[in-house]
Design brief:
homotetramer
């Protein structure tokens, strides 16, 4: 199948990240698709993902603080709002159905792979600027979109998870984020941004974050 | 009239800030109350206040990034959302009625007093933590609440501005922010927070930000 | 006389900053040159400059934290070291001769113009990256170099101050900082950096910091 | 043998960190003591440690930027200076003797355990304040001191490494850093700092950084 179109920077970053296939076609993902991923691993992943989302929301809030235009600020703050007031409550509801209550969820000890990833993203944002944050956040947002698009319609016990990311709403979000990134690059670096050293450095950020996504799935599979 | 109750930290900070009366009973404020503030000064203030709001929203976004609990993050991100998706559009509408369009508003050159204030708040947040941000943000949020409560019902040509800050909705926001601050202090410093050197330092931040609010009104009056 | 050569970015920034002459040929500077600046104003300036230096050293430390190469880190950390272990002690000694002891110096209340400038620089650094810091720091470092070079040999009661900045050691530092900036631009943006929107934004940072330098001299002259 | 005295906060943090023994008595450390650690693992560790030192120096530079007193700033900037102008050149020399040149050293790809640790420390510093940085930096600085003190005199092929950290100079540095931390706590939180929630949170930071030190030794042993 074809790769979804989330803009030009994503296409370039994706092509230059050695770990992209290892991430988006990870055994954990295949287990979700076939429906044979053990429930215990999925729940371990869900718990860690909740802690991840907290830091992810912090990183988008930092993006709003570092935005250069009103449009960037609105896009970033809308994402924070959606994460904090919609996605995290949904996560809570999903976990509650599995017998994990809010207190247990919030008390989840952070796995090393989780900590490595979230702190990498936040530090990229604090040390760098809006573009550094976008490059570090993109593998998660857009990678889940690509996985969702590929797995859409697989059904099975993980069909709900798959449909969340493969659905029209999330796919539209991915296209919006892709456009936000392309616009931010032009705004700062001009039309020839893909030829600048700055872009090479951003590609490295994307590749590192992709590597950390692989570690996150590994953590989910190993249950550690 | 009595001072509105926005919590314990506010009462202490307010009492310890030498410039509090100079800020909340500034000639600019009295001009709003009596309705004899020249329109040109009000418009100059409105334009600068729009630029101020952008940085103010950035500071609240930084607060969301530096929050320590989900509750703090939700409160901060809801404030960003309200600023970016409600207060700034309202500002745009109000200015449009006065013949200042969006492009003119966004192109407003930052007055030195504006720049001094906004960068002080943001730097406090970046250098320090959530509490430093709250202490630097409080004079604006809660001072406008106190001014609004005192001027409520004054009517006159600035009645709309007065009613915004004196109204029930904004007063409720001030009580919420006051509770957020008191809760954040207990969460980090325990019940005896008001006796710690950390609190003295926060009082100094509040006092400095209050001094910068005086400078902001001065700028409004002088038109420079 | 000719303008000293502190590199290509400086030449471009300097040419694009409307306030450059107002800063480098300010009445305060002319008073230093002619020797008729009242002593009280000079001492007021010296006290504020000490507080300024503390924040200036913090900003260079932040530059070391945000450096991208070992060379940038070494240059920034050497500057911090020189400021903290040499320039600030010298300042202390100079003030001591004037009867201002260390305790009095450290207790200096920050003037608004001082606060505006230092927080602008630090916030530029926290919000942005190494280049934003360099653009915000350059007017001070290199402007003093240009002033020193022009005033060198004027003698008079302020001859010691003039010789510090006009002397070979400080002039060499200015050339080093200029080269650091040009190198940092090429490293991130390639050889065509002067044609990118990013550079326009950096020029605006330089111009704003220049405007704040004018405010600093104004503060020195007015004694407020 | 007795534990070295690096101050009160260290004693409390050390006692509350579940992983402290796992870190300071790790198989990698025992291999250094007995001299039977394979050379390849030591060299893998050395390479990664060089990359670590760069980020470690960045973190100390951030501490200088976030210092609250001149004394804190001088202590932090002196550490950066020592790291950048002494320890890193020594590392380069040691590696050169092993046939690893500067270019190879600087090109070392960051191992996940390295990345996790350094970004955790830097993010703690950016998100929090000077105390957060100290708590995150302490396990490395003071843990190496404790290991050095215990292994001192073991001799063997790793005797030079052991003597660096067990020697009088490094032990004095540890006592200075311990005093800096205790002083910073009193300065901000008063004499009763060990009873405040803030201190509990700092202890968690220390414990997390300790856990990441264990991961660093694991990485050294596994060669991955």
């Amino acid at each position: 199948m074809s790769v979804p179109d989330y803009g030009r920077a994503f296409a370039l970053w994706r092509g230059a990240a050695p770990g992209w296939q290892a991430y988006t076609r990870h055994a954990f993902v295949e287990g979700l698709r076939r429906g044979d991923l053990p429930r215990a691993n999925f729940l371990h992943y869900l718990r860690q993902d909740y802690v991840f989302l907290i830091h992810f929301a912090r990183a988008w809030a930092l993006a709003a603080a570092k935005a250069d235009t009103l449009n960037e600020m609105q896009a970033a703050s809308a994402t924070v709002h959606a994460l904090v007031h919609q996605e995290m409550p949904l996560h809570l509801a999903l976990c509650a159905r599995e017998g994990i209550d809010a207190a247990a969820l919030e008390a989840t000890p952070e796995a090393p792979a989780n900590l490595a990833y979230t702190r990498y993203v936040l530090e990229a944002g604090y040390s760098g600027d809006f573009l550094d944050l976008m490059a570090a956040l993109a593998p998660c947002v857009l990678g889940y979109g690509e996985i969702g698009a590929r797995l859409a319609g697989s059904g099975g016990v993980y069909g709900e998870w798959i449909d969340t990311y493969g659905g029209a709403e999330y796919q539209a979000l991915c296209r919006d984020v892709g456009a936000l990134i392309d616009g931010a690059l032009v705004h700062r670096l001009g039309e020839g941004w893909d030829g600048l050293p700055r872009f090479t450095r951003l590609s490295q950020r994307f590749a590192t974050a992709t590597r950390l996504e692989v570690g996150f799935w590994d953590m989910g599979l190993s249950g550690a």
